[in-house]
Amino acid sequence: MTDEWVSLGTVAGVCLLVAVLGAATAIGIARRGHRQISEVITAGHRQAVLMAREDERRDAYTGALEYADAARLEYGKVGRGENAEFLPPDIERSAPLLAGVSAHGGPEASRRLSDLLMHVPTVNYYAARLSRAPRDADREQEFVAALLKFEELYESFATYAHADLATPLEMPAD
Fold it and tell me: Which of 13, 111, 133, 166 is 20 to 30 Å from the Cα of 125, by its Cα?
């Protein structure tokens, strides 16, 4: 009978050992699984934040470029002697554009857009003078000079904006 008890004790001990090892393994797997799930959720959140920042940056640049493109179209009308609606360089329109580009494009983008927006009143002034009758060579020359400067500033900003948009943002840190 003693041999049977020893055998049963050995079997019970082995079973207990297997159960303890199995439980420890299950706990380890569960912890790793929880950590992996947590990492996936964190990575997904960071990716969502990155995508939102990309969208905001694209929207900021797009708004500024649309404003400048509209100004270019109107200035082209003036140059052709057509009636044009001047884009007001008012703070209500340009401040949000500048704020958006400053927040999402950085200081260089902000400086370039600021230079462009600050030149709009100058071009508007010469465009208004030119559109008043009679047109003369001096007024046309002043307008063309202001328009060329506007185009230079526009190209500087547009080139920077397109290059910045082509550069992907970095994944935000935890």
Answer: 111
CA pair distance 24, 45, nearest whole angstrom: 31
For 112, other C-beta atoms within 10 Å of its C-beta total 22
CB 153 within 8 A of CB 119: yes
The whole-angstrom separation of Cα 40 and Cα 135 is 67
Q: How many residues does the chain have?
A: 174
State the amino acid at position 135 in one-letter form. R
3-class secondary-structure state, position 159: helix
Rounded-to-integer distance, Cα 120 and Cα 28, Å:
66
Alpha-carbon gap, residue 112 to 96, rounded angstroms: 15
Which structure tokens are listed for 6? 């020893």
Instruction: Name the CA radius of gyration of the chain, rounded.
Output: 34
* Domain range summary for the chain, segments of one domain joined by +: 2-166
